[in-house]
Each structure stands twice: as structure tokens, then as C-alpha cells.
Amino acid sequence: MTSLAQWLVAQTDDAALASVVTSMAAAGAELATVLRVAPIAGQTGLAGHTNVQGEAQKALDVISNDVVLKHLQTNDAVSVLISEELDEAVHFENQGAFIVATDPLDGSSNLDVNVTVGTIFSVLKSAGGLLQKGRAQVAAGYVAYGPATSLVVRIAGAVSVFTLDDRGEWVQVVAEAKVPETSGEFAINTARERFWDAATLGYVKESVAGETGPARKRYNMRWVGSMVGDIHRILMRGGIFLYPLDSETTGKGGRLRLLYEANPMAWLIEGAGGLSTTGRQGILDVEPTGIHQRVPVILGSAEEVRRVEAWYAKG
Ligand SMILES: O=P(O)(O)OC[C@H]1O[C@](O)(COP(=O)(O)O)[C@@H](O)[C@@H]1O
Ligand SMILES: [Mg+2]
Ligand SMILES: [Mg+2]
């Protein structure tokens, strides 16, 4: 059985980069325990304030942010932390070689109903500054807190999946995850249909038409309501995730955040053979203009993403 530490040695000669992934994995392991007993500890519910995105913070959003911060600020390989829960980037005293961008708790609306949530992270070189394209990432990953706690991580090469064992060690369960090229499963919040653009409407209508429609196959729909849950399913068995630009989110540029949601997930999915796009350009080619910038997100099985791109190419 391959441990995370063994895998990291095989993936990179850069001990500092490996230590950043190790710190995020340690934060994930600690959070798995925090989340497991949060209802007993009375840590569910709202924190009583809003974050920079104007969203009500849950107590666990704040706790998760604190846990990630604690693990990174003691790692001298990290110079800066960008977090969904922090208005400004935090600059640490040390001049570490790496920047970490994180969504410390993704899908927090699922917490009160005990459905999978996650921690997403993206690692960039400090030399490139805060606003770098997703293609510049040197590592990315997420932790999914589900029936099992999974760590999915990529350092340039393969996307590997680890499970947290009952001693608190990460054990590799998939050496090289591959997103199936084709799939019959899509994920989108269909309650937003009235806001959709023509391309989204076209793709979903075509899919819902099933065997008798132009796609000539039956589709199923799944929407976990936490990006980590949806992306993990797509990584393991294929499918497509869409949070497109719609008439309600146009002013904000989309719903999901570029630096710590879209970029790391796009880099992981592409590393596993899938594709990602905003509909108009590759997610990994979007030039960031702000640390909390939002972006349309479409990613997953290559054939499905190409079908959506074809709809966008029509106009
Ligand atoms: O509320 P909706 O439209 O179902 O959106 C769900 C999406 O919002 C998110 O919950 C946003 O993430 P946060 O919980 O970190 O703000 C995604 O995980 C998820 O895909
Ligand atoms: Mg999120
Ligand atoms: Mg979050």
C-alpha cells in the first residue's frame, strides 16, 4: 500500500512543494475529525457574519479556515494564503516559494443535512504573484468528507486518490484517476433554468431528450450541491458539471470562484483526461483580475464538454 508520503517522494524532487501538500492533507485529516463530531460539539449553524462574497458564514466555514491557516502558517514553504473566507490575502512572515488558494469548506449548505462537503486547494509559485492563470498551478487537490474521507491530489502528473484510514494515515486507493471520455450523467442546478443562456438550455434539453434526442442516449441527473461531491463523482465515474454564466450571475461573472474552486478542479479534471471550459475559453486560460473573482464552470468527461462547447460555438 502506497502512503501519501511515498507518493510525494515519487512525484516531486521539491521537498518544499511536497510539504505544502502534506500540510493541506494534515488540515484535511484534522477537519475530518472536526466535521464528524461537529453536531455534538455544537459547531453547526451560522457564525453570525458574512464573508467578502456577501454569503452568511457558517461556524464551520470559520473553523475550517482557521484549521487550514494553522497548518500553513507553520510551514515555511508558504508565503501567502488566499481563502474564500478571508477578504484579503494573508502574507506570512516567511518568504516561502508557494502561494496556497483555498476554499476551506466547500458546500457548507450541506453541513446541516450531513451530505458530503470538502476542502479545495490550489498551489502556485510565489514568484508569479497572486493573480496567475490556472495553467500555472504546481499542485492542486481536494479533500472530500463523505462516507470515506478522500484526498485527491495532482502534482503535474497523474491525479491520485487517497483514503484516510482509522489511524489517520492517507492510503492510496487509485494511482491514476481517469475521467471516462463519455458519460450519461450531467450535474446542473435545474432550478435556475429560467436564467440559462441558449447554449446551456440547448445542451440540457438535448440530454433530457435521451435516446430519442440528438445525443441518442439516456442521461441521468445528479446535483450534490457541493462542488467537491459532484466533481469527485465525475472523477470516479464520468459526467459533466455545469455552473454556467446565467442572466442572474452575469454581473458577478458567474457563481463559483476562479482561484480556489474552478482552477484547482479544472486542473485535476484535465490531469485525469477530462476537459474544462467557461463556455467561451478554457478555465485554465482565464487571466485573473481579483482573488475572489468568479467564473462560469463547465467540466468533466471530454465528449460531454465538447458537446457544450459546440453549443457555445453556435452563438
Ligand atoms: O446553491 P447552488 O446553486 O446549488 O450551488 C451549489 C454550489 O455552490 C457551492 O456550494 C459554493 O461553494 P461554497 O459552499 O464554498 O460557497 C458549490 O460547492 C456548489 O457546487
Ligand atoms: Mg465552494
Ligand atoms: Mg466554501
From TrEMBL:
Binding site for Mg(2+) 1: E84, D103, L105
Domain Fructose-1-6-bisphosphatase class I N-terminal per the UniProt entry, residue ranges: 15-173
GO biological process, one term: fructose metabolic process
Entry's cofactor comment: Binds 2 magnesium ions per subunit.
Cofactors (names): Mg(2+)
Pathway: Carbohydrate biosynthesis; Calvin cycle
Name of the protein in its database record: Fructose-1,6-bisphosphatase class 1
Gene that produces this protein: fbp
